[in-house]
Design a protein that fits this description.
The protein contains ten helices and five strands; from the N terminus they run H-H-E-E-H-E-H-E-E-H-H-H-H-H-H. It is α+β, with helices and mostly antiparallel strands and about 250 residues long. It has a five-stranded mixed β-sheet with strand order 1-3-2-4-5. Strand 2, helix 3 and strand 3 form a beta-alpha-beta unit. Helix 3 packs across helix 10. The protein is globular and about 45 Å long. GO terms for molecular function: glutathione transferase activity; structural constituent of eye lens. It comes from Magallana gigas (Pacific oyster). Pfam families: GST_C_3, GST_N. This is S-crystallin SL11. Belongs to the GST superfamily.
Length: about 250
């Protein structure tokens, strides 16, 4: 696996740590940048706190965008993070503040937003299918972490080869088979509408494709990714999104 792939994967897998930020910036401070979308409905107020970059926060931003929900996007430099860290629950980012109440842990935030804005399923079966996708994604990322933590260079190369030649194709094949179970793969992972599962897979493939050569997407998965990025509200968000470091 190339150093560029490490650059992305450690950021994605190591939930919420400042080191993720360090690996994904060029080393200079960027300061706090606040982006507030404006809508007529000001309650509740959502504030998403993270570092500069996509990482664990981007699927949350994409979910807000898909829901058409305004939020404050607060981003910290590493220096600023150390100052505010003691005030943040579990001393981790991302963290979502909802009318002053803190919600830590990226997985909890994703699921909260999905339930709040109809980005989960319409029934228990569909909700479970969404959770299956989230769980499969976590399992895949654990394989990547085993590569990162391996110190022996020979073993590291073996893990690298296994990831690129086996794990990535297996992951894509699994997603393809799950997708085909709903509308023969011509729609979304669950039901007739976009869900957190679709948004998460788009985000993983999008961020990975910017730093590594991926195996070809199976046809149904390729179609899904195209549908998500062209989903009207997400397409609008992507058009306005600043170019973030990976």
């Amino acid at each position: 696996m190339s150093s560029r792939l490490l650059y992305f994967w450690f950021f994605i897998c190591c939930d919420d740590s400042p080191i993720s930020y360090i690996l994904n910036t060029t080393g200079h401070g960027v300061g706090i940048r606040e982006v507030a979308s404006k809508t007529a409905n000001k309650m509740p107020a959502y504030k998403l706190m993270y570092f500069e970059g996509k990482g664990r926060a981007e699927v949350i931003r994409l979910s807000f965008a898909a829901a058409g929900q305004s939020f404050e996007d607060k981003r910290y430099s590493i220096e600023e993070w150390y100052k505010v860290k003691p005030t943040i629950p579990q001393h981790q980012l991302p963290c979502l503040q909802v009318d002053g109440r803190f919600i830590p842990q990226s997985g909890a935030i994703m699921r909260y937003i999905a339930r709040e804005f109809g980005l989960h399923g319409d029934n228990n079966d569909e909700n479970t299918r969404v959770d299956v996708i989230l769980g499969a994604s976590d399992d895949f990322l654990k394989n990547v972490m085993s590569w990162y933590y391996e110190k022996d260079e020979t073993k590291k190369e073996e893990i690298n080869k296994n990831l690129e030649e086996t794990k990535l194709p297996q992951f894509f094949s699994l997603l393809e088979s799950i997708l085909k179970e709903n509308d023969d793969g011509d729609g979304y992972f669950v039901g007739k509408k976009i869900s957190l599962a679709d948004i998460l897979i788009y985000d993983i493939t999008d961020q990975t494709s910017s730093v590594a050569k991926l195996p070809a997407f199976p046809p149904k998965l390729a179609g899904l990714i195209d549908r998500v990025k062209n989903y009207s509200k997400i397409k609008e968000y992507l058009a306005k999104r600043e170019k973030l470091t990976q």
